[in-house]
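Q: My collaborator sent me two sequences in one message, no labels, and asked for predicted structures for both. Can we handle them in order? The first one she listed is below.
A: Yes, handling them in the order given. First sequence, followed by its C-alpha cells:
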Amino acid sequence: MATILVTGANGFVGSYVVPALVARGHRVLALTRSEAAGATVTARLPEADRSSVEVRTGDVTRPDTLAAALAGADAVVHPAAIPRGRDGGASLRRANNEGAGTG
C-alpha cells in the first residue's frame, strides 16, 4: 500500500481521513503544526492502528517546513484549510490556496 501525507490531520476532515486510510492498509504521515496536535491524532486511533501513523510537524503556509514532511510520501491528501479569516482574506489565501500549491 501507499504512504500518504495528510495535511491538517488533527482537523475535522483529517480526523476522518487518517483512520479511513489506515483501515485500507495505508501508512499515514500525519502533518500537524505542533507536537500537541500530533498527539491528538494518535490518541483518536485504536492502539492497534497507531503504528501505521507517523506524525510530522509542519505548516502548509511555510514551504520551508514541507520538504521534511513530504519525505517518503507517495501521495498527499490535503484537507488542511481554514473556514474564515479575520485579516481580509490573507490567511485564507495562504492556507487554502497557496498551501495547496494553487496560489
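Q: And the one she listed second?
A: Here it is, processed independently of the first:
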Amino acid sequence: MANSATVRERIRRLWRRDAEVIHPPVEVDAIPLSTRDDGYLLVAAQMLAYRRIDLAVAAATALGRELIVVGDGPERARLVTLAGPTVRFLGRVDRPTLVDLFARCHAYLVPGVEDFGIAPVEAMAAGKPVVAFRAGGATETVV
C-alpha cells in the first residue's frame, strides 16, 4: 500500500513492486468553511529539513509578510534564526487552535514536497488556497 501516487511510483522504482494507493483519511467535515481572512500565511508541519519550511520563512521575511509557523522539530532553532519580525512560531497547538488558524489564514503554504499532505487538505476544507510545489501529494490533492 501507498498513501499517494508519488509513494506508489517510489515503490515501483526502488522495489519494482506495484502498490495500491489508499489515501489517508482526513476529517474535512469537522472543519468549517470560512470566509475570514486575517492576512497571514500559515505553515503547520513537523520541522524537518526536507519540509523546506526555511523557504517559507525566508520568503515571508524578505517580503515582510506575516507568517505563522505551527509545529516543532529539530529545525526549529535554525528557522528562528532565519526569521524576521513578521514570522511567529507557535510550536505545537491543540486541534481547535489549528482549525481556527486554518479558518483565519490568507493562504496555506507547502514549501516542500510531501508524500500526501493532510494539512493542505484541511486548509482547503476551510476554504483557503494552498500554495505548493507541483510535485508529490499536492498534485493529487491541491485544487
